[in-house]
Amino acid sequence: MAERALARDMGTPGMPEFGPWLAQASILVVDDEAGMRNFLTKTLGARCKFVVAAEDVRQASDWLDRKQFDVVILDNIMPGKNGVEWLAEQRQIGLFADTILMTAYADLETAILALRAGAVDFVLKPFRSNQILNAVARCLDRRRLHRENFLLRHELNAEADGGRRGARLVGTSPAIQAIRETVARVAALPTSILITGESGTGKEVAARALHAGSERADKPFVPVNCAAIPTEMLESELFGHAKGAFTGAGERREGLFLHANGGTLFLDEIGELPPAMQSKLLRAIEDKRVRPVGAEREVPLDLRLIFATNADLETHVRDGRFRADLYYRINVVRITMPPLRERREDVVELAEAFMQHISRELAMPPLPLDAGVRAGLHAHDWPGNVRELRNLVERSLILGGFPPEFQRDMTEDDALHASVDDSLDAVERRHILTVIREAGGNRAEAARRLGISRKTIDRKCAAWGM
Questions:
Q1: Which candidate, 234, 219, 180, 231, places its Cα nearest to that of 202?
Q2: What is the C-alpha to C-alpha distance for residues 86 and 108, in angstroms, rounded to an integer?
Q3: Do residues 446 and 436 make contact, with C-beta atoms less than 8 angstroms apart?
Q4: Percentage of the chain surpassing pLDDT 70?
Q5: Is residue 53 predicted with pLDDT exceeding 60?
């Protein structure tokens, strides 16, 4: 117990009392006293990812121009300009980090001025190491909660517009296997990816697979439908804005680029960007910086960009509707999603996956996919691709049956397709996956029910790309 108390007081790394986010934090310390700078650097440096100290506001401003920080620890009384004045100026030109103000004079007026300037916490000198660590931990928790709430709301809006957060690449056709191989090859690379294909082919699903296979998998994945954001709001939504940047901008706001920082930003319908935004996007990609609306400072970025479009960008470039330099910058690696009519052997498997997922979501019993329904699914051309198939399954589930055009007598060709689907391998695959789903994804339990080894299930799932 005595050792733990001493560790808490001394700030020993690895102790969990200050939360898990401290180890990932970047901190800027601004104080004119060398002793205080050294104390804070040693206290925080043992626990945080990056800590740097500035002896005056000029050095601090230089650091803010070069790097994005999670928290700024700022002394109020310094030569030339006090901390509150400097903080107010920085908020105006584009400072988004949470700020802790340190002062030896605890008066109400200073506290009010600090809050108005944008400080989120107030620490009185002298203080112990655990006091400043707790203050930083509170800031990090506040930032994390704000970011998670924003991203969850954004995800819900994206799902309402047709996005599917839990979707995965389903199918065993050569076309989808080739997509899986490409995703596995490029997922870990920082290279920008352009995903093309008709509407509804699963471009966002491929983008999420790229993110999940990268080193950023535990960081945010932020999908953005460029066509769904009004043109006049696009720059503010993407890059953020400073307080007072325009009518109604009563508070500063981080844009989607900053919310995706550290993770992956997925820009869908990139061909719908207006020319002015194309130019600003190109600069953001090249410089790895964005300038929020109304801000004077550019904010550094660390994120992976994935783009998608259902448009023919080469034709857009020839017609002058899309910048050639932006097109060549984003078209480093291209993944083309095949339309569903070119991977008909995956239709039944996709329908089964949708049926299982949607029936659980709606708390309704799944509909059987008998031979006549499978024949109808195979015969359809699917102009709306995978999205159309999902909508059909959901509508049929709600109405209690598939439409008449999907309940047909099998022709000889349909029977051939059905026999392929009813091959021993296909039946085994469907049965094993069904048992895994019924076991809640627990492969060990599924193996017990099937009377086979867990290793056999893992080997078969790996062969099926799962």
A1: 180
A2: 19
A3: yes
A4: 88
A5: yes
Order of strands across the sheet that contains 26-30: 50-54, 26-30, 71-75, 98-103, 121-124
Model pLDDT, residue 439: 80
Do the domains spanning 161-338 and 344-463 agree at the CATH topology level? no
Compute the distance between CA of residue 290 and CA of residue 240 in angstroms, rounded to an integer.
9
**Nearest by Cα to 74 from 87, 89, 58, 93:** 87
Place 339 in a pLDDT band, splitting at 50, 70 and 90: very high
Extents of the domains making up the chain: 2-142, 161-338, 344-463
The pLDDT of residue 15: 43
Contact (Cβ atoms closer than 8 angstroms) between residue 213 and residue 183: yes
Q: What is the pLDDT averaged over residues 1-23?
A: 51
Say which CATH architecture domain 2-142 belongs to. 3-Layer(aba) Sandwich (3.40)
Tally of CB atoms within 10 A around 166: 8
Instruction: Please name the fold of domain 161-338.
Output: Rossmann fold (3.40.50)
- Which three-class secondary structure string do you get for the chain? CHHHHHHHHHCCCCCHHHCCCHHHCEEEEECCCHHHHHHHHHHHHCCCCEEEEECCHHHHHHHHHHCCCCEEEEECCCCCCCHHHHHHHHHHHCCCCEEEEEECCCCHHHHHHHHHHCCCEEEECCCCHHHHHHHHHHHHHHHHHHHHHHHHHHHHHHHHCCCCCCCCCCCCCHHHHHHHHHHHHHCCCCCCEEEECCCCCCHHHHHHHHHHCCCCCCCCEEEEEHHHCCHHHHHHHHHEECCCCCCCCCCCEECHHHHCCCCEEEEECHHHCCHHHHHHHHHHHHHCEECCECCCCCEECCCEEEEEECCCHHHHHHCCCCCHHHHHHHCCEEEECCCHHHCHHHHHHHHHHHHHHHHHHHCCCCCCCCHHHHHHHHHCCCCCHHHHHHHHHHHHHHHCCCCHHHCCCCCHHHHHHHHHHCCHHHHHHHHHHHHHHHCCCCHHHHHHHHCCCHHHHHHHHHHCCC
pLDDT tens-digit readout, 377-389? 988 999 999 999 9
pLDDT higher at 156 or 401: 401
- In percent, the amount of the chain with pLDDT more than 90 equals 44
pLDDT (mean) for 307-328? 95
Please state, in angstroms and rounded to a whole number, the distance separating the CA atoms of residues 269 and 361: 28
Q: Name the amino acid, one letter, at 315.
A: T
pTM score: 0.70
For residue 412, the model assigns a pLDDT of 42
Per the listing, tokens 């104390």 go with 39
Instruction: For domain 344-463, say whether CATH 2.30.30.30 is its number.
Output: no
